[in-house]
Write a structure and sequence with these properties.
about 375 residues; nine-stranded mixed sheet; 9 strands; about 40% helix
Amino acid sequence: MELERLKTALEKLEDPRRTVGGHILHKLEDIIIIGLCTLLCNGEDFTDMEAFGELREEWLRKFLELPHGIPDSDTFRRVFERIDPKALSECLYDWLGCHWEKDAVIAIDGKTIRGSKSKSHKAYHVVSAFAAENQLVLGELVTQEKSNEITAVPELLDSLNIVGSIVSADAMSCQKGIAQKIQERKADYVIGLKGNQPTLLEEVSLYFQDFGKELPSLVTRDKGHGRIEKREYRLLTDLSWLPERSEWAGLRAVGSVRSTVTRNGTTSTDTRFFITSLTEIERFAYAVRKHWSIENQLHWCLDVIFDEDSSQARKDMSPLNLNVLRKTALSLCKHADFGKRFSIQKKRFAAALNPDRFLDILFAKI
């Protein structure tokens, strides 16, 4: 049974409580599983975890030991303040068992948990690696602020098996060391190019300005939500004119994407530039498009559906551990097949009403 496998995985976690000579009433895996179940069922905080446990205690006893009943909200709070979030994420993500095919896009980006700011520390910034096709978080690393992404990304990549994949990232990660790391890990890359590499940006933008229209393009069109968007992708693989080309590991092409958006009769255009180790325009366009899934399918969902920035959990590790639980709950909801009419929020509502629907989410095939 999948829940037994989850319990076995969580048993490997180091218990942050005083287990020698202490008076431990509640099993660590019971506390974590109730916490995850609460978030799956529209709960938000430690008080909700206690309420969920009490209301579903008879049902929960079919799966959990609960030797001393349901923990109170203070117990949930104290435990989630102390658990190592990195160890918790490794247990839960391993349990989800994500696999991805060659050429899959792994999007790297950071998100600040704005509600985690307190008098003692800044808001936590979490850099995540997101499997775009599977819509699953593969790993994450915590930094104190966004500027620290530059050092966090190589460390995150070292913790993942990215062989054969395409790593996509925004301009913050446009660093020679990051390109080198991706190549060392036997993956390709597509990285945004902006003002943090001013010389390279100027050379690339001027080239496309003068000669870009001579290059073949791949054009896509999308229509929805009152807007029409046309994208023109171009890829230049002859970099003999670029003095810095040898300084970037694996650099084989530079690309541009010109977006033309029409909404309510008003048209706007925007051009973005990229460095990449890819040489096929179809793969380049696919990776650029897929990168936005980390914003649309992860960060937006955490903010809007799980209301993460409004969370009152601020002390110690609690904001980070709840972030891990939300990501796990989000992945489970996305892969639960309730039919096209069920949004993630409706799935959570159904799970709150019906324990059988809840199990359909908890044991979703990923």
